[in-house]
Design brief:
AA-Vitamin_Transporters, single chain, mainly alpha, disordered N terminus
Length: 302
């Protein structure tokens, strides 16, 4: 097994790519808010998967990039499972955020690294949860909780508890998908195939779930809403997810997932700059805790 797939510290290139992804995903939170103004949430997620699947397939055909022998390489079944997890995750998250506050929702959603670390510990022999990694994850997540502490104090509405639970479920499904990719035949599959499985399977499931959840089929012609949808489809569900699954196939799943706690930090900054949302007074301390926790997780083993 190549060293890049072992549970050692991430190289600078992988760290740089993960920081870039966290920034892109943080901006996605703003795009979802803008898109929701013109497109119902689950419908928006379904359209995003559909558009991204078409774009990915077209790009692969144009570049003459094949998906490999997907019919006989053992990836079909785990690929379908990953697509179902992907769809249910987004249903849980989009519905959950609508029932609770954004601050509460993002804290519970980004418990995903804990699910990845636990799942990888039991299912991936080379990615065990060491004491240093456990402490690092705890410190980093403590910083995340601190960053959103003021939001946690705010009232979340009558259905906030249900919304919190749905966001926890969304984070667990996100973590389960990551572990599935790492622990199954998908680990050896081409990243484009792994992504295509999730997009192609989730698109019809999400589009079917939208009317079942009572959403109207409404797409606003406003340029802002359409632009937000295109950003999510091409930039997030297309390019960024392909890069993410390539990283998962090469490096430690739990160490990569630990960086995901930075995404809501970038999201809060993007919200402050682009939407004028206020920052908490403890934000600087929270960032320091997150950075220190990630350093503990990625410190080279002695």
């Amino acid at each position: 097994m190549p060293d890049s797939t072992r549970g050692g510290a991430l190289p600078p290139r992988a760290i740089g790519l993960m920081l870039f992804l966290c920034l892109v995903w943080g901006l996605n939170l703003v795009a979802i808010k803008l898109g929701n103004q013109g497109i119902p949430p689950v419908l928006q997620a379904g359209l995003r998967s559909l558009i991204a699947a078409v774009l990915l397939f077209g790009w692969c055909r144009w570049r003459r990039i094949g998906f490999g022998d997907w019919q006989r390489n053992g990836t079909l079944l785990p690929g379908i499972v990953a697509g179902v997890l992907f769809a249910v995750e987004f249903i849980a998250v989009y519905v959950g955020v609508g029932l609770t506050t954004a601050s509460r929702g993002v804290v519970f959603l980004y418990g995903a690294p804990f699910f990845v670390a636990i799942g990888a510990h039991w299912l991936i022999p080379d990615d065990r949860l060491t004491r240093a990694k456990a402490i690092g994850l705890l410190v980093a997540f403590s910083g995340l909780v601190l960053a959103f502490l003021e939001g946690l104090w705010a009232p979340g509405g009558e259905q906030a508890l249900l919304g919190d639970l749905l966001c926890v479920i969304g984070g667990a499904l996100w973590g389960a998908t990551t572990v599935l990719v790492k622990a199954s035949a998908l680990r050896r599959a081409r990243p484009m195939l792994v992504l295509f499985y999730q997009l192609a399977v989730s698109a019809p499931l999400l589009l079917l779930a939208s009317p079942l959840l009572g959403e109207p089929f409404r797409i606003s012609p406003e340029p802002l809403a359409i632009g937000a949808l295109i950003y999510q489809a091409a930039g997030i569900a297309g390019a960024s997810y392909a890069l993410w699954f390539w990283l998962v196939s090469q490096y430690s799943a739990s160490r990569l997932a630990a960086f995901s706690v930075l995404t809501p930090i970038f999201g809060v900054l993007a919200g402050a700059v682009l939407l004028g949302e206020p920052l908490g007074q403890l934000f600087g301390v929270a960032v320091a805790l997150v950075v220190f926790g990630l350093w503990l997780v990625n410190r080279p083993a002695r």
